[in-house]
Amino acid sequence: MSKRLLVMGALCLVACEGEPLTRLPVEGRFDPDQIGFGMVPIGLSPSREAVLRNEGRVNLTVEDVIVPFDFVVPEIEDGLIGTIVAPNADLSFNVEFAPTAEGLRRGTLSVISGDRTIELTVSGTGVFQPFATCAPTVVDFGGVSRGQVAVQSIDCTATGGDVELQGVAITDGDADFALSPPFEPTLIPAGTSTTINVAFLADGPPGARSGQLTIPNNGFDSVIELTGEVEIPPPSQNDISVTLTWDTDETDVDLHMLLPGAPLFDLEGGAVYHFVTNPDWGIPGETADDPFLDIDDKDGRGPEQINLRVGPPDQYELWVHYFAGPADRATQATVAIFLDGELVGTYEQRLECKRAWRVGTIDWDGDTGTFTPNGQTISRMEGRCIRTQN
Ligand SMILES: [Ca+2]
Ligand SMILES: [Ca+2]
């Protein structure tokens, strides 16, 4: 056989239609290979994630899934059969335990792929016991401006008898979510409901947050997923808001705001800019009085934005530095300054690469402020200017 044919034969082991020269075995396993649900009140159906790993060199096709009595795989209704798992890839799906009677259930959940059966041991004990059903099980607070607090309610209803809720707590993400007010241990009489209020404390840089609320009841945990997104507060919610834009593509111009005496490019927390995006100003550990570089544009035109929600009385100096771009092309930078939600001025300056513009100084007394423009420009060492050849 020629070398070329040998190579094609090797490829056919995994890739060719029809009958391969040699059939490689399907290899897979569940990791972990058992799921225990513990005691579950009859009427509930908690869910756990099963992970099936393809450890072979050929695709693993889910041809059938055999599920023991009182367990449920909802994804079977949703196209699980026929799923192809590539070599070294994982397939995750949910397994629910929905006991219909008291006692231990233990069985084997099997995934069939070719002549291979991959097994997962599942177990749980059904118990007759009152329980609380809590809804919704997923709470999405949506977008909330930094500094705002959003509250949503979860209702828990006692089924099958009285239920005592004790130890309700934020078990993940307690910097972003809180029980508001704190939830004291509560006895819910059978057939009635109680309300748990959860707050999303939007703080820190813009972006997604997630957490979990755990509601233990009669030895069984209800877990509520919490999500929210911190949004940039609008100028009306900031004492000081400054936006920089410029008029060239593929150029990085930067906005800097400095405390009195702090140098440009200060790394000690006296300045907010792209190297130090959220220094602790004002009261140490208090976040409301800290500035944020909320938008950091590096590839041209901006906007780039600094916000300070609760500004301590002080003088804040604004600078704009042309950090990176073509050495032979200037850009027109524009700065818009909002104090207490009002636009107090828009200033423009033409800048070449590595030049810095001292825009001026904000005098802020804690309630209102004024802006005094400066207009000086200086050269800086920092920056990357690209020389183009003519
Ligand atoms: Ca920038
Ligand atoms: Ca602070």
Give the end-to-end Cα distance, rounded to a whole number of Å.
Answer: 59 Å
Mean pLDDT reading: 92
Radius of gyration: 30 Å
Number of domains: 3
How would you describe this protein?
The structure is a single chain. With 390 residues, the protein is mainly β. It has three domains: 22-127, Sandwich (Immunoglobulin-like); 131-231, Immunoglobulin-like (Sandwich), CATH 2.60.40; 235-386. Helix content is 3%, strand content 53%. The chain has one helix spanning 3-12; strands spanning 28-30, 34-41, 47-54, 60-61, 64-66, 71-72, 84-85, 90-97, 103-113, 116-127, 131-135, 138-145, 149-159, 163-165, 169-172, 177-179, 186-188, 193-201, 207-217, 220-231, 240-246, 252-258, 271-272, 291-295, 304-308, 314-326, 331-339, 342-351, 355-364, 369-373, 377-379, 384-386. The strands form eight sheets. Strands 22, 23, 26, 29, 30, 31 and 32 form a seven-stranded mixed beta sheet that branches. Strands 24-25-21-27-28 form a five-stranded antiparallel beta sheet, with no helix packed on it. Strands 1-3-8-6 form a four-stranded antiparallel beta sheet, with no helix packed on it. The protein is elongated, with a radius of gyration of 30 Å. Residues 1-16 have low confidence and may be disordered. The site of one calcium ion (CA) has 8 residues, from strand 22. The site of one calcium ion has 8 residues, from strand 22.
